[in-house]
């Protein structure tokens, strides 16, 4: 059924607040669907039945941690201050991943209020012991290190149990063969750091029954594999045993192009630990940056085994479109782990991260209902009572709900709020990850702004200081304009208008419009049409995509593409910026 409905009259809409009281919300934006299509060159190569594609989780899915429970594998990723937080995936073949839910799915679990997008949840680590799933992580600038538990990985997960004795970031849990548990994590070294980036790995015993640390903490790695070379940012540690031998794996070199993975052997969880003289076991930092289809910044690995006791690593990497510019964030890759004289190796010499590899020795499972890799088209029709799991918002949800999937059946209703995309708050914005360098996102919207500065449409968002908005806004004459605005590091929280066209609508009539954002590596195009099946019209072509790249915007997330509504009613902190960006 075609949802492109015409000649609708703007009217007040009743929505139900979280308290159950009906409140009048005027003139919402109605979105009938959003279609996302990815068309990356690396995914065009056909693959055989015994092969898989990298990355296995495309787009902003960084810092993977994995655990095996019988025939099942579970994987989690960092989510920073996006909500819901910490996506959790399930697989039986390590290739096809289906999202089960989120670990942080209740606003009361954590408070992200006022935080930048790249604060919040860093590097969750998942483990399993005696019927219980454990997840330990850090809420940066919002409480520190904590642990949560669940009997079912799909949830519900418990409220956080805080671990004030554990400083730093990147904690992980290790259950040894004797049943004892240990927390290891990145923290400051003893005394004053010797140089910028000088960190250490610490360990402490953990009471898994009472969820608390016990006994003394001990430093087990100072600086990295060779302190004399001033290694930086030793982090993301994991302990594991193979044939009785204890191994410590950790990231080193920072999460940018110098990222790597290193390994050490230990005599006990408290050490001593001896690094391999052939470290690192994973990196791409020494390869030609001009190579074809580069995968860079690889590291932060976690290990698991398949049905034939082969070892595999999941790790993060990036796919830049030029130099170190990428908008898709840090993604999850899969590669086999080979063992050389009792040491694990993921890459060696000039070996590049493959975009196609041989599948693990596990029975292939059906493809996930929501694709996580390859080229695909996914259309969200907004015809269910809940949003699909791949949708997210910024920070904790507002106590007064601003969206509904049931008030206007078959459409997503966004009730405009006076919170701009550039504020460190919870604007009326719902989004999905950009998972391809070459991608197109299209939506159909019905909306009528009531005053100058009201706006609704699409946004390509990296963080509160770096985004594009594309949609309909009210003008000074009481009519509507179609605009593209951009924020690149400061200025008006709405961004500066860089393209504008007047729209012709009757008074009180909703604007029925289709909006399309096309990503082309380093550029974005913005098209629209006012009638179905009519040619698309450009509003702005070749906008600078580097604005929403991680290199330009900073932080640790990738770009998301979504839907936004803003009200410039009295009390709003910002209004629409009319001036052109210089």
Structure in words:
With 582 residues, the chain is mostly beta strands. It is 1% helix and 46% strand. It contains 1 helix and 41 strands. Strands 3, 28, 30, 31, 33, 38, 39 and 40 form an 8-stranded antiparallel beta sheet that branches. The chain has a 6-stranded antiparallel beta sheet with strand order 32-41-34-35-36-37, with no helix packed on it. Strands 18, 19, 20, 21 and 22 form a 5-stranded antiparallel beta sheet that branches. β1 and β2 form a beta hairpin. 48% of the residues are buried.
Any chance you could write out the topology, listing elements then pairs?
Elements: E1 12-16, E2 22-26, E3 29-38, E4 51-53, E5 65-69, E6 72-76, E7 82-83, E8 85-91, E9 98-104, E10 120-129, E11 132-140, E12 144-150, E13 161-162, E14 169-175, E15 181-187, E16 200-207, E17 212-222, E18 235-242, E19 245-252, E20 260-266, E21 273-275, E22 282-283, E23 296-305, E24 311-318, E25 331-340, E26 343-345, E27 356-358, E28 377-380, E29 393-394, E30 403-404, E31 412-414, E32 428-433, E33 438-447, E34 455-463, E35 466-474, E36 480-488, E37 496-503, E38 511-520, E39 523-529, E40 537-544, H1 550-553, E41 560-566
Antiparallel strand pairs: 1-2, 3-28, 3-31, 3-33, 4-27, 5-6, 6-8, 7-29, 8-9, 10-11, 11-12, 12-13, 14-15, 15-16, 16-17, 18-19, 19-20, 20-21, 20-22, 23-24, 24-25, 25-26, 30-31, 32-41, 33-38, 34-35, 34-41, 35-36, 36-37, 38-39, 39-40
* Assembly type: single chain
In the predicted model, the low-confidence regions spanning at least 5 consecutive residues are 1-24, 574-582
Query: How many distinct helices?
Result: 1
Give the biggest sheet: 8 strands, antiparallel
Could you tell me the radius of gyration in angstroms?
Answer: 24 Å
Strand tally is 41
Q: Estimate the helix proportion, in percent.
A: under 10%
State mean pLDDT (0 to 100 scale).
Answer: 92
N/C terminus separation: 44 Å
Strand percentage = over 45%
Overall outline: globular
Structural class: mainly beta
